[in-house]
Design a protein that fits this description.
Blueprint lengths: L6 E6 L3 H4 L21 H9 L11 H6 L2 E8 L4 H4 L3 H20 L3 H7 L5 H14 L2 E2 L6 E4 L3 H7 L5 E9 L16 H16 L7 E3 L35 H11 L8 E3 L5 H17 L8 E5 L7 H4 L6 H5 L12 H9 L3 E4 L3 H4 L2 H8 L4 H23 L8 E3 L19 H15 L11 H20 L2
Parallel strand pairs: 1-2, 2-5, 4-5, 5-6, 6-7, 8-9, 9-10
Antiparallel strand pairs: 3-4
Helix pairs in contact: 2-5, 9-10, 14-17, 17-18, 18-19
Length: 480
């Protein structure tokens, strides 16, 4: 394994803003810094009230290079139309043009792309266009100082790392709606017709030169495959409706997709990323994986949640004893909703040889009052210390759940940068990941924080495991 110090990001979107910079053809490339347009009084108002979302690229390729993020999982994401077709209330208040402006300002997409999305639901066509766009971005940077390549396995990854100026992408997908579900047409298909469509589209993806390493089965909206977890708080949940299918289990079509993705008979295995699946669906999937791994110890399937936080509950059942509403997470250190993972889930992920990527969304790492207190700190240095402590608290909760030194083998980082997250102010983009690393090490050194849970590791070793080595070890076993 390479001895170079760098960061591996399990989940980010360096492609989204540039891919959606124009329709039918993107006008920008993945190296460019894209700032969200806010032209006109209403656009500037939207920009002001959504300051918690950074209005420029967080992971364009130059920023990844500056932040020493050599390896990153590029998440392809054909935008779910649930984001685009908003509730009637905002339409009544601001009109269709106002809605288009709101969506463009928050996402950074061009209005032409937003308006085109409203005309059709062909997610699989969107997916293929996005893959082709990312594929074509490979090559030298505009200034010729860097290069970007995609890789297909660990051997290719190790080879690409030999050139210290090369950035290495691994294709992933966020949401299995990309195979053509979650659309009005899906409702009119018989189960056999739907399975046939899913089989064909999955086979097409597996035949790509760089098929995805993993895919989220669910995302924010009903996709006819799996229930999703509640992910939106105010004010977003007043603008979009994610009630349909929320908290449901895995459907028969969903099980068909899982088996097709995990199969080696139709091409490379594509792992399932459990982030965004409802807890009911996750429980069903964990049982399936546990049984498979028991029968097939020589062919283990790891459970991965690429960008998450912990919820502090001891069991999955306790995670959903209360509904996912604001009071549930107001007064706790952690973000308590069931989209985050419990101690019981941590142990299941560890048993499968899987990984947990802690994300850079402050709203997913801490409870409402926790985040309110941290964001109110005016002293930047003090605020950085509090964010470092919050990040460590999430990591320590994972280690406590496992109860041994092996707990440190599970924790990685999946920023979700450029995924329209509520970023931590001092670490607004990939360029600040070296600062985060430094702050994490310094916090442990200065405070000997929860030293009994270090299990003999030094602060430097713990940070390196999270930022690099755990992911690289995972690739060595499973990225084949």
């Amino acid at each position: 394994m390479s001895k170079e110090i760098f960061t591996v990001d399990l989940h980010c979107h360096p492609n989204l803003k540039s891919f959606n910079s124009g329709f039918p053809k993107p006008t920008r490339n993945m190296w460019e810094n894209i700032e969200h347009k806010a032209e006109g009084r209403f656009a500037k108002t939207v920009n002001e009230i959504s300051q918690h979302v950074l209005k420029e690229s967080q992971t364009n390729l130059y920023k990844l290079a500056e932040g020493k993020v050599r390896v990153f999982q590029i998440s392809l994401y054909p935008t779910e139309r649930g984001f685009i077709h908003m509730r009637n209330i905002p339409k009544i208040l601001i009109g269709n043009r106002g809605v288009n402006t709101l969506q463009a300002v928050i996402t950074g997409y061009e209005k032409a792309s937003v308006m085109e999305m409203k005309k059709h639901y062909n997610y699989f066509e969107d997916l293929q266009r996005e893959y082709e766009y990312v594929y074509a971005q490979q090559g030298k940077s505009p200034d010729k100082k860097h290069a970007f390549v995609l890789v297909n396995n660990y051997i290719e990854l190790e080879e690409a790392l030999k050139d210290k100026n090369t950035l290495i992408g691994i294709i992933t997908i966020e949401g299995a709606h990309v195979f053509g579900t979650g659309a009005p047409l899906t409702e009119n298909l018989s189960l056999e017709e739907l399975k046939a469509q899913l089989t064909a589209n999955i086979l097409t993806v597996k035949r790509w030169e760089f098929p995805p390493f993993m895919i989220n089965l669910g995302h924010h909206f009903w996709n006819h495959l799996t229930g999703h977890a509640t992910s939106f708080k105010r004010p977003i949940n007043g603008l979009v409706n994610q009630n349909k299918g929320k908290d449901k289990g895995i459907t028969e079509a969903g099980w068909h997709v899982i088996r097709e993705l995990l199969s080696r008979k139709n091409g490379k295995r594509i792992l399932i990323d459990t982030k965004h699946m409802s807890l009911v669906a996750r429980k069903e999937y964990y049982a399936f994986i546990n049984n498979y791994n028991y029968v097939n110890p020589e062919d283990m399937i790891p459970v991965v949640t690429s960008h998450a936080g912990v919820n502090g509950y001891s069991t999955m059942d306790s995670s959903i004893k209360e509904p996912d509403v604001v009071p549930k997470t107001r007064h706790h250190r952690f973000y308590r909703w069931s989209i985050n993972i419990s101690n019981e889930e941590v142990r299941m992920i560890r048993a499968s040889g899987g990984l947990i990527g802690l994300m850079m969304d402050r709203g997913m790492l801490g409870g409402l009052n926790t985040i309110k207190n941290v964001t109110s700190i005016n002293d930047t240095e003090k605020q950085r210390k509090e964010y470092a402590r919050l990040f460590w608290d999430n990591a320590f909760q994972i280690v406590k759940a496992i109860g041994s030194k092996e707990g440190w083998d599970v924790v990685a980082i999946g920023t979700d940068f450029d995924g329209t997250i509520t970023h931590m102010e001092p670490y607004e983009s990939a360029t600040k990941l070296p600062l985060l690393e430094s702050d994490l090490k310094d916090y442990l050194k200065a405070n000997r924080y929860q030293e009994e849970l270090w299990f003999g590791y030094s602060p430097e070793e713990l940070v390196r495991k999270i930022m690099q080595t755990n992911a690289m070890n995972f690739y060595k076993f499973f990225f084949v």
